[in-house]
Amino acid sequence: MKIKVNLISGRTAAQGANLEAKTHKGYFDACAYCELSPVDLERLGASEGDSLKVNTEFGDVVVFAKTNEGNPEGLAFIPMGPWANAVLSPDTHGCGMPGFKGVPAEIEVTDEEPLDMKSLMKKYIEA
Amino acid sequence: MPVIKDAVCSLCGSLCDDITVTVENNKITKIENACILGHSKFVGMLEHDRIETPMIRKNGELIPVSYEEAIEAAAKILVNSKRTLSYGWCSTSCEAVSGAIQLAEETGSVIDSTANVCHGPTALAAQEKGSPSATLGEIKNRADVIIFWGCNPVHAHPRHMVRYSSFSKGLFTEKGRKGRKMIVIDVRRTDTAKLSDKYVEIEQGSDLLLVTALRSIVNGHEDVIPETVAGVPKAEVIELAETLMNAKFVCIFFGMGVTQSRSKYKNGDAMSSLISDLNQHTKAVMIGMRGHYNVTGFGQVATWETGFPMAIDFARGYPYYNPGETGANDILVREEPDAAIIAAADPGAHFPQKAVRHLAKIPVIQIDPYPNPTTEIADVVIPAAVVGIEAEGTAYRMDAISLRMKKLIDSKFKTDEEIVKDLTAKVRELKRGA
């Protein structure tokens, strides 16, 4: 089962509190997840903590599932950080700012585990 | 034991200047008044690892070297580069920013700040239409209607509402939260929205539609408004416009929801026009919720030294500015830079992967107190003292008020200001030799 969503990214207090400890697990826990409305999570047949694969035209990333009742249906949120940026848009539309919010994405349940920060960055060096 | 009062917290753009810090044996042992973000910053000094020594990448591994070797290697990268990107300089002092601009001029680099991925569009909007603003002190003392638009201070600026806005009590706002109307406009019910009197949920990317509709109503053209705007029923849009017009003092605080969503700088541009329209009826101002504690300072220093607030290209020998062309992400995505120097920011974590892939290909010099994703792709790493804790300096709050950050403890690490000075001297020496 795949669902289509509109993906946004942004700050959270936990992301901010781990800003200067990005090699630590606290940062991973604070950023490597995707928040969906309970309805969307149910459509996926997923529970909190399951692995989700998020695909956009710019890439794909595996993150943990979380639910947020504040999200309207069809809106997905990943905290700002390397996991979100694996799938966000580099296009600045000629004004300097990349597309950190409003990226069409497809989400599905996966058996893969989210990569830790160092492993994720290694992909960019090897590519 | 020394207790330092009124320390300035160097984390977010709220720049809270009422932190009490207890220092014992050159270690911070107690922090009072800080929020979760500030607290993490201060206790981080004890709890997690630092970049302990300068390092140079050899055969894929970062190897410890002396400070002099690292400066020399970094200077060589800069001298041999034809197109350097200098990026970041926002979690540091204005004095370091000034040095960084001098180094960028010396090396013909493009220098850009984290505004590139934050409030850059706000700077563009201000250049298009102006930015009717106020100090946070004025908001505290006067604002009776406060809007948080596309921002979530509960998470990103946790003490903002208590110190400066919704909950604060001032000269003409002695009732505090009870005397103020707090409105949140966002695409999802955030923790800030949960505290509001009125939450307006809009369709993601439709901010410009709502701002434009509000302008139409404020200018007496209610008849042109369709039945729904940005997913919001017409009646609700009219009610919102009336709340604004009937206020004594309106402040719209806005964040990344506005600057990063579709229409980008045109959203801020339209918001500035809305503020101008509202000022025909009452007093209204707008303030961007700045993220890095001194990203505002970068804009100030760069503007007074080069004429431009960010994305400044020195390749021609004089400052040239065209953000959609000279912005950090634009030049990286075009694969233009053949080297980069990154300080007090983390593009490895915060740039889209296409830009990071190019950074991974070129020599990268990193100046930072802590290891982060940028360290993973850096070739020369120079550790720095933490400004506001181990070094003093000037920073600008989100409302462009300058505050002097204190040095609280001694450090073995050099400051960003010293590092950039040493680097500039070495670059000049190598260039003379050539």
Set down the secondary structure blueprint:
The complex is a heterodimer of chains A (127) and B (434).
Chain A: E1 2-10, H1 13-17, H2 25-31, E2 33-36, H3 38-44, E3 51-56, E4 59-67, E5 75-79, H4 82-85, E6 101-109, H5 117-126
Parallel strand pairs in A: 1-5, 2-4
Antiparallel strand pairs in A: 1-6, 3-4, 3-6
Chain B: E1 3-7, E2 19-24, E3 27-32, H1 36-47, E4 55-58, E5 61-64, H2 67-80, E6 84-88, H3 94-107, E7 110-113, H4 120-129, H5 136-142, E8 145-149, H6 153-156, H7 160-163, E9 181-186, E10 198-201, H8 207-218, E11 228-229, E12 232-233, H9 234-245, E13 249-254, H10 256-259, H11 265-278, E14 283-288, H12 295-306, E15 312-313, E16 320-321, H13 323-326, H14 328-333, E17 339-343, H15 347-350, H16 353-361, E18 364-368, H17 373-376, E19 380-383, E20 393-396, E21 402-405, H18 416-433
Parallel strand pairs in B: 6-7, 6-17, 8-9, 8-13, 9-10, 13-14, 17-18, 18-19
Antiparallel strand pairs in B: 1-2, 2-3, 4-5, 4-19, 7-15, 11-12, 15-16, 20-21
Helix pairs in contact in B: 2-18, 3-12, 3-18, 4-11, 8-9, 8-11
Throw out a few tags for this protein.
heterodimer, A: 127 residues, alpha/beta, Barwin-like endoglucanases, six-stranded mixed β-sheet, 6 strands, globular, B: 434 residues, Rossmann fold, Dimethylsulfoxide Reductase, domain 2, 3 domains, nine-stranded mixed β-sheet
Biggest sheet strand order of chain B reads: 5-4-19-18-17-6-7-15-16
Let me know the largest β-sheet of chain A: 6 strands, mixed
Poorly predicted runs of 5 or more residues of chain A: none
Q: How far from one another are the termini of chain B?
A: 54 Å
Number of strands of chain B: 21
Strand content of chain B: 15-25%
Count interface residues per chain for the largest interface. A-B, 53 and 68 residues
CATH architecture of the largest domain in chain B: 3-Layer(aba) Sandwich
Shape of chain A: globular
Uncertain spans of chain B, ≥5 residues at pLDDT below 50? none
CATH C-level of the largest domain in chain B: Alpha Beta
- Characterize the biggest β-sheet of chain B: 9 strands, mixed
Q: What's the oligomerization state?
A: heterodimer
Number of helices, counting only DSSP H or I runs of 4 residues or more of chain A: 5
CATH topology of chain A: Barwin-like endoglucanases
CATH class of chain A: Mainly Beta
Average pLDDT of chain B = 97
Structural class of chain B: alpha/beta
Report the portion of residues of chain A in β strands: 25-35%
